[in-house]
């Protein structure tokens, strides 16, 4: 457990490497440019969910570039190490076997169920935190992360169709060159929890 904490903490000490732009769809984790601890981006939909193509239309890459740039500006150029393939962010698409309502029925444990299904699909590398843009619903919150050691895990997720306190979660993401907004900052928040940073 101590080694895993050190490995995950090393992710937060990497130089910034985000780049914006659309990429080709991949349903597998591409060969890594680095074997070091890293953040792997994913666009995930439930079995009956609409596919909005956030993995290939630049939404995820641009949002990530926005918060990576902001974080680097706060830390003297340091940011989270992204999983890249041939120098570009590696964004994987996955469709889960369960429906949106089945996953949402887990209430505050939607993240746990998404993680369980992703692990069953083989997305469980010990040196990675999976930053998941889950295009499904939650009636509990707009996202979730692991909170080690009480809640171990390697999935940090945004619920793109989530509702928090009866209010739909914003469905707006930073575009090319734009500063991060609520959703973009939310991903940093969930990743930091998953890395073991204290709750805020």
Description:
The protein has 200 residues and is an alpha/beta fold. It has one domain (2-195). Helices cover 28% and strands 26% of the residues. It has five helices and ten strands; from the N terminus they run H-E-E-H-E-E-E-E-H-H-E-E-E-E-H. The protein has helices spanning 2-11, 59-74, 100-104, 110-120, 182-195, and strands at 14-15, 38-45, 78-79, 84-85, 88-89, 91-95, 128-138, 143-147, 151-164, 167-168. The strands form three sheets. Strands 2, 6, 7, 8, 9 and 10 form a six-stranded mixed sheet that branches. Strand 4 (84-85) and strand 5 form a beta hairpin. Helix 2 (59-74) crosses helix 5. The radius of gyration is 15 Å and the shape is globular. The two termini are 23 Å apart.
Number of helices: 5
Q: What structural class do helix, strand and pairing data support?
A: alpha/beta
Order of helices and strands: HEEHEEEEHHEEEEH
| Whole-number total of structural domains | 1
Kindly report how far apart the N and C termini lie: 23 Å
Taking pLDDT < 50 over at least 5 consecutive residues as the criterion, the unreliable ranges are 1-10, 15-21
Helix content: 25-40%
Principal-axes shape call: globular
Characterize the largest beta sheet: strand count, sense, and whether it forms a barrel: 6 strands, mixed
Q: Any idea what the radius of gyration is?
A: 15 Å
Topology of this structure?
Elements: H1 2-11, E1 14-15, E2 38-45, H2 59-74, E3 78-79, E4 84-85, E5 88-89, E6 91-95, H3 100-104, H4 110-120, E7 128-138, E8 143-147, E9 151-164, E10 167-168, H5 182-195
Parallel strand pairs: 2-6, 2-7, 7-9
Antiparallel strand pairs: 1-3, 4-5, 8-9, 9-10
Helix pairs in contact: 2-5
